[in-house]
Amino acid sequence: MTTPTVAESWVAAPLTRLMEDARLISGVLLYPTGRAVGQFGFSNAADVMSICALTSAINASSRELGRQLDGKPFYELHHAGTERQVFMARATAGGQEFLFVGVFDGESSLGVVEIYFGEFQKSLEKLRPEKQVATPVPAGDFEGELNRSLDALFGPIGKP
Amino acid sequence: MKAVSRIVAALSHVPGVIAAMVVGASDGLIIETSAMLGGVEAGDTRKHTAALAAYLYSRITRASDAARLGTPAFMRLEAEHGQICVVGARDVVVVTIVTPNANLGRVRLDMMTAARED
Asked: Are A5 and A45 in contact (CB under 8 A)?
């Protein structure tokens, strides 16, 4: 099993626990803007970059779909493939929203993942630092924010 | 299998059964559940029990296969304050939470009968 790499150290313990307890193959925790906070199961930045961009877009569209259909945003999404399944959900900690996307197979189940994701959410709420170090970023700089978070996870690309 | 709601209703009336559930075997999600006896705030408890019991049953099935014993007929987990019983029925598992002094023979028979009946 891999160890999570994180851009913010306080998420390392809850992310490790979620990965181990829910028997997830891979996962990414990110802000709704697409900035990655932590990941496990991926070895290259390009994959995480794609997942962050897709998750952010899926969250935005599914949120709107939920509003249209149910009057409120959907809380979680689950897609069962033939061998692997994708679980995507929102978590909040101290008013800050996070997105999580995880992949699992027959070694786990949706029910198990949901349980441990619930515990993960509680850990985030408990462990989130009172004061976040605010890094000024230009508004709407999606690509820049994504690249900065990937640099934090994998090191600057092309700069050994 | 009989209508799941009838199975759950019947099992929940067996003496010593605190809660009866029918749970998806592969996803561990509750399909039908009885109320939890004893006035416990049970929403999360049952959800957790259902998911973990289904998961445990799937592991037991693998262990049983590995030992060339075939499909497990009945699984019972004995704990300090009660027991969890699980019986597989194709795509679902029937789960009961029972008191330590429950009539286990009756619980077992009723669970296996429920799982067998189509």
From this structure: no
Are B27 and A115 a contacting pair at CB < 8 A? no
Residues A27-74: tens digit of each pLDDT: 999 999 999 999 999 988 899 999 999 999 999 998 888 889 888 888
A142-154 helix and A45-70 helix, angle to the nearest 10 degrees:
130
Helix (H) or strand (E) holding B19: strand B17-24
Torsion of CA A73, A75, A81, A85, to 10 degrees: 150
Please tell me the distance in Å from B58's CA to the nearest CA on chain A: 9
Per-residue model confidence as pLDDT tens digits over B69-81: 999 999 999 999 9
d(C-alpha A100, C-alpha A88), whole Å: 6
Per-residue pLDDT tens for A31-44? 999 999 999 999 88
Q: Please give the single-letter amino acid code of residue A112.
A: V
Measured between beta carbons, the chain B residues lying within 8 angstroms of A108 are: 55
Q: Strand locations in chain A, DSSP E?
A: 5-6, 26-30, 36-40, 76-80, 85-93, 96-104
Scan for tokens 């199975």, then name that residue: B7
pTM for this structure? 0.82
**Which residues in chain B are contacts of A80 at CB distance < 8 A?**
27
